[in-house]
Structure formats: C-alpha cells, structure tokens
From TrEMBL:
Protein name: CDP-glycerol glycerophosphotransferase
PANTHER family (UniProt xref): TEICHOIC ACID GLYCEROL-PHOSPHATE PRIMASE, TEICHOIC ACID GLYCEROL-PHOSPHATE TRANSFERASE
EC annotation from Swiss-Prot or TrEMBL: 2.7.8.12
InterPro entries in the cross-refs: Glycerophosphate_synth (IPR007554), Glyco_trans_2-like (IPR001173), Nucleotide-diphossugar_trans (IPR029044), TagF_C (IPR043148), TagF_N (IPR043149), Teichoic_Acid_Biosynth (IPR051612)
UniProt KW Membrane keyword: yes
Main localisation: membrane
A cellular component annotation (GO) from this entry: plasma membrane
GO molecular function, one term: CDP-glycerol glycerophosphotransferase activity
Alphabetic keyword roster: Cell membrane, Membrane, Teichoic acid biosynthesis, Transferase
A Pfam short name: Glycos_transf_2
A Gene Ontology biological process term: teichoic acid biosynthetic process
Length: 736
C-alpha cells in the first residue's frame, strides 16, 4: 500500500501550483501518490496538472467539469486515494525540503490516526511567521500519541486540513467528509481530533502556508464569511450525535468557536462595516445556543471582555471599544511617522530645486480634468520607440484614430523617434503634464514612483519578455540577483496596473505570483511579435539589403542577456574564431543588452568585415528577421525569435552559477528551443557540424514553440487595442 496520498485541489493557483507539486515530488520519500484535482479552474491549473501527470506516474489528474468548491474537491480526491494516510495540501502552499522523510518515519513507527505537523506562514515579502506550536506544546510530545481529552490544548493549533495527516481507514470508518462552502476546514479538523484514539505531533516545519497578497479568501470582503456559522453548527451537531463521549470536550470546543468568530469579525478585510452588527448578533445567538451547561474557560484580559460583551449582546459597546483601540493604534503609527519625517520636513525648503518645482507643477496638473483622448507610451525607461508599446501604438492609430498617442523619451533618444510620432522629453513640464492628464498610460516597465494613479486613468503594463529568470517578488529569494530592490515600492507600482499583457500561459502563471495584485491579465500573445508573423519575404530581403547582407549569406545573431549579480560580465565569446567556423558566407551580428547602452567602451572596431555590433539598432525585430540563427543564453529573445521557426542555440557557459545566484523559473537547458552549448568550443562545433539544424534540435524547437508561441498569430496588438481602448472584450482576459 502507498504510504501517503496527497490530495491537491486547484482553483486559480496557476502561479503557485508548480512550486507546490515540485515540493512534493522532489522529496526523498517516494512512497506517495498525488491526486491533483482541477476544480474547473478558469486559469491554466488544469493544464499544469495534466503536464505533471504525463511525466510522473505518481500524479493522477482529475479534471472537474463544474466548480464544486474546496471541500467537495477534496472529497473527490479522497475517493480516489489509495494511500494509508491522506494529506490535503492546498495548491498555493508547498512542503519544506526533505520534511517527508521525518513524516514517513513517524507514521511507520507510531501508526497514529492523526499526525499534526508544524508550519510557517510565508508572507509575500519573504518573511515567515511561526505557528503556535511552541506555545501549545512548550515541551515536545515526542513520539508519544494521545487522545484529545488528555491534551485538549491541541485544539489551539490552526484548524486546517493541511497541517495534519489522517489515516484513511479511520476517516472512512468515521464517515467524515468536507462540507461545501467557506471555512470547510472547521467541520473537518475538530471532529477528526475529537474522534481520534491516537494523535501524534511532529514539531518539524513541514508546510509553507502562503499568505497571498491578492486572491485569498481571507482578503476578500463579502457576506460569504457568514458561512463560518453553519460550519461550526456541524461540529456541535456531530458532538450531539456522538453523545457523552465528547461531553468533556464541549467547553474547550465552545471557547474555540467564540475565538474563531471574533477573529473573523475583527478582520476588516473580511467583514464590511455594514455587515458587522448582523455578524455580531449571530455570534451572540450561537453563544446562547451552544453554551455548555457547566460554562467554559473564559480568556483573561481584553479577550475575556469581548466574550462577555458577546454573551450580553452589547454590540454598541463592543464596537465603541474596537473603534477606540483602532484610534489608539493609529495615533501611535502617526507619532512614529512624524518622528521619521522631522528631518525631511526641515530640509524641504532646500530641496525646492527645478525638480521640486516640476513635481509641484505635476500635482497642480492632477487637479485638471483627464484628457479622454490622450494615451501616453513609454518603453525601457524612456529609451525610445520600441517593443510592445510601439506595436500597440501603431495598432491604435488604425483601430482607434480618435486616440492621440504621445511618447516619452530621454533627451539622448529623441533621434530614435520615427517621423510623425508625437513625443515629449522626460523631465520637462510637458512630460509631467501628459503623465497627469492622460487617459491611458502604456509602458513595458513601470512608470516612476511619483506617478499617481487617478481613478479615470488606465495603466497598461505590457512587459517585455517571457521570463526565464525570476521576477518581481520571487527575486526576494535570490538577494544576490535582486541587489537593493525595493519590493514594497514595486508593489505600489504594480497596484497601479489595470491590465497586464501576457505572451503565453506560462508567463501568466509567473506574473500571477511575481506581481500579485488585482489587475486584468490579457493573455493575447506579444504585440511586438505581430511583425515577425506578418513580415513577408520582400521585407526580409529589403532589410538584409539595408544591412549589406547577401541572399546566400548565413547571418547569426548573438544576443546574450545581462547579469545583475555580475556587473560588467561578458560571456566568453571570440567573434573572430566564431566567424571563421561559419565559413566565408557567414556573418555575425552582436547585440548587447539595453542596460549597457551607456557603458559601451571604445576598443576594437565594431564594424569588422564580417562582424557587426548592432547594439544601437532601435528595432530588434529587424535583426530577428535578418538572422538565420539566433544564439542567446537566458534572454527572452529566444521566445520571440522562436515565432519565426528558425534555429536557436543556447550558449550557457555559466548556467549553474546563474541559476543559483539569479534564480530561474525553469531549466532552459533541459527544455531548450534548440541545440545547447556550455563551452565556446562546443558552440563552435555546433556550427562547424551544422548540428544547429539537427533533427534533435528541430524537435526541441517544435516542442518549445508549442509551449510558448501559440498565441503569436499577428493580431496580438489588435486584441489589446480592442479591449483596452475600445472596450471590446477579447475573450482572453482574466482577473487576478
């Protein structure tokens, strides 16, 4: 018999599900199975489950045709489980490395009905909060097992399904199922503990309980939080059915119920102000209904006062005390803030330079009406006219001619703006004016921190690549690569987004976890790649002629990415040796990352006979169309160039170091778009032997294109314009 069956329900967890499944399947203990249940999720969760099931026989995919909710989805997984123990793990949480070894050892040694394990709350800012395990059990119970009536303090551990493993036959004999609705853990976790004859505790952190910034039930306001009441009613109905066997536990269970109700009521992110009186009234009703005949242990201090106010139904007094407490806390925060600002306020007069005056001008412009016809575009921190914003701008000129488009560019990039395109220079009064008054703000990076999001404005984040390296909040786990990144500031900028453009399902999944906020995802392909689809042979011939490339010459484009953790790093690459390997008909184009646009140093000539530095060329799509082969490493260029279905070579001499220091979302060397070389000698040999076009390389590219390029059909920019500018739903948008 399999030792552990993991039941993993999935609904809107596409950004986290891979980490969850990897954390289970990568454990040293392999006597497991995973029943992953797609609860008719509107995102890519089902496809991810199928992908894992196809490559690991321990994973069983269950796809539901209707959304049934977390509890019923767990029941469906339970019905298919064959393990001796069942572990219900949520799809956005993940296991600690190697924890399963200790779990399995304890299960085999003690055979408990229930094994409680420890967890940490892992927050979006990469901090962790310990559970109550140390307070509940100051001295570890060790391998001893017990009944709940002997250690009722066990009820003070978090009442979730995922911090306990339950013996499957015990659960079947008990006939206990998850109830539908929110707070479904309540009517499962407490009865399981009350009925168990052998409860074990493993005080080892096994579960990372993700505290999601957006999308979690605990951060969702609404009347569905009233569903906590029927869940607790089920607990007491079960106790009534079980009779005197649970009488001794009633006082402790009752105390937990009132504690839980007050916890939900006190969370301003759950119960809206207008619903709080009715919620409090229901607490009082349940207090009167289920109060044990002999009373219960009322907590001390403020918590005890709350319990007594509930008992007497004194909502106004309860509300007034809560308001006073909140006001006192707010005053303390204001005092701390004021102390921190004393210095800056005192120095404000000295800072009223030109920039300060322009910021004042910006604030004045914010008081003027938004221009309903104005759209502002920017790319790569104002480096010029390019990328997805440029493609959207071109489409909007045709599809939304009533929209006036204005670009923001740096002063040293004015010459890159095409004739006829209106622009303003960053830092000028016109720059601040358009930022304050534009109806649409379109960028492939974030606008500066001072930009304030007005209610009438629409921020469109287009991004500028499918991610290989980790991005956003995920960089917190890789401090070397993240440098001094301000993650709180990043989230303030992300909160301005109304729309986020995604090139493919994989990008959508990664953006969900890297940039958690309440924007709408437009999974439509990348607008900048439209040109790669629509360009015909005549355009390619024209471009090659402009670059002086003959029709029979082989053009190789080398475009490595930068290394944030290694400033100034350049991969080992000898252009002369490489072009000799290409032969007389070979040409090499070399393009550095745009981050290096201001630090190119003079040295060897950059326009040799068969080698050309094209780093300054504004439109990278021109280079893709010219090139017969692309060489890159971890750059998103591979995803764009794959649209052309031409050979791609990955040159990854520092893969292991890059993966460990910078962090990556997947092993690009294991799932490459073509041939892979880890040394320069290997790279040269690939071209000498023409292995870049081998059957294996072609098959790898075909698989890569199927995963990442299916949406690039030449109409991505049109879909964006129709939805964002014209209000015509594309059918490919989803709310985060």
């Amino acid at each position: 018999m399999t030792l552990i069956s993991f039941v993993v329900p999935a609904f809107r967890v596409q950004g986290y599900l891979r980490e969850c499944l990897d954390s289970v399947l990568g454990q040293p203990e392999t006597d497991i199975e995973v029943i992953a249940v797609d609860d008719c999720s509107p995102d890519a969760s089902g496809e991810i489950i199928d992908e894992y099931a196809a490559r690991d026989q321990r994973v069983r995919s269950v796809r539901l045709s209707d959304n049934v909710g977390l509890g019923p989805a767990r029941n469906i997984g339970l019905d298919r489980a064959v393990g001796e123990y069942v572990w219900f793990l949520d799809g956005d949480d993940w296991l600690a490395p190697e924890c399963l070894t200790e779990v399995a050892e304890r299960l085999r040694a003690t055979r408990p009905d229930v094994l409680l394990v420890d967890h940490v709350r892992t927050h979006w800012n990469d901090t962790a909060t310990r559970s109550a395990m140390a307070e509940v059990f100051p001295e570890s119970p060790g391998a001893d097992t017990f009944r709940l009536r002997d250690r009722p303090e066990a009820m003070h551990l978090l009442h979730t399904a995922w911090n306990r493993l339950v013996r499957r036959e015990f659960l079947a004999d008990l006939g206990l199922r998850f109830a539908p609705g929110w707070y479904e853990d309540v009517s499962f976790s407490y009865p399981v503990l009350m009925a168990a004859q052998r409860i074990g505790v493993l005080d080892r952190v096994c579960v990372n309980y993700r505290q999601r910034r957006a999308g979690a039930i605990t951060r969702t306001r609404g009347d569905r939080h009233f569903e906590v009441f029927p869940q607790w009613h089920r607990v007491f109905h079960l106790m009534d059915a079980w009779g005197s066997a649970t009488d001794a536990l009633r006082p402790a269970v009752f105390e937990r119920m009132i504690w839980h109700y007050l916890t939900v009521l006190g969370n301003g992110q759950r119960i809206a102000p207008e619903l709080r009186p009715a919620f409090f009234a229901q607490i009082t009703a349940d207090y009167e209904r289920w109060l044990p005949a002999g009373g219960y242990p009322v907590p001390d201090g403020v918590e005890g006062i709350k319990h007594r106010l509930v008992a007497s139904g004194r909502w106004r007094t309860f509300s007034a005390l809560r308001a006073a407490s909140r006001a006192r806390d707010a005053a303390r925060r204001q005092t701390r803030t004021a102390r921190r600002r004393v210095g800056p306020v005192a120095r404000r007069g000295a800072r009223l330079t030109r920039d300060g005056l322009l910021r004042e001008y910006y604030r004045a412009e914010l008081r003027r009406p938004v221009d309903p016809t104005l759209a502002v575009y920017a790319a790569y921190w104002f480096r010029g006219y390019s990328c997805n914003p440029a493609a959207i701008y071109e489409a909007a000129r045709t599809l939304a001619p009533g929209v006036r488009g204005v670009w923001i560019v740096r002063r040293d990039r004015v010459d890159s703006v095409p004739a006829g395109v209106e622009y303003v220079v960053a830092g000028t009064p016109a720059y601040y004016r358009v930022l304050a008054r534009a109806r649409w703000l379109v960028n492939n990076v974030n606008f500066p921190d001072f930009v304030r999001k007005r209610p009438e404005q629409v921020h469109l984040q287009t991004h500028h690549g499918t991610p290989v390296k980790v991005m956003g909040l995920d960089q917190q786990r890789y401090p070397i690569g993240a440098g001094r990144m301000d993650f709180a500031g990043l989230l303030r900028r992300v909160d301005r987004w109304d729309y986020s453009v995604s090139a493919n399902s994989f990008s959508t999944q990664m953006w969900d976890r890297a940039y958690p906020a309440t924007y709408t995802t437009l999974e439509v392909g990348y607008p900048r790649n439209d040109r790669l689809v629509t360009a015909g042979p005549d355009e390619v011939r024209r471009l090659r002629a402009e670059f002086g490339v003959g029709p029979d010459e082989q053009v190789v484009l080398y475009a490595p990415t930068h290394r944030e953790h290694l400033p100034g790093y350049r991969p080992p690459f000898d252009p002369d040796r490489f072009v000799r390997a290409l032969g007389d008909s070979g040409r090499l184009l070399m393009r550095s990352h745009y981050f290096h646009d201001r630090d190119r140093r003079p040295g060897r000539p950059v326009d040799w006979e068969r080698v050309r530095d094209v780093s300054g060329h504004q439109q990278v799509e021109d280079l893709y169309l010219i090139a017969d082969v692309l060489i890159t490493d971890y750059s998103s260029a591979m995803f764009d160039y794959a649209v052309l279905d031409r050979p791609i070579v990955l040159y990854t001499p520092d893969w292991e170091a890059y993966r460990l220091a910078r962090g990556v979302y997947f092993d690009v060397t294991a799932e490459p778009p073509g041939a892979v070389a880890t040394t320069f000698a290997d790279l040269v040999d690939l071209f000498r032997t023409d292995a870049v076009r081998s059957d294996a390389a072609t098959k790898a590219r075909e698989h890569f294109r199927g995963r990442f390029c299916t949406l690039d059909d030449g109409h991505a920019a049109e879909r964006v314009v129709r939805e964002v500018f014209l209000g015509e739903p594309s059918g490919r948008s989803s709310r985060c």
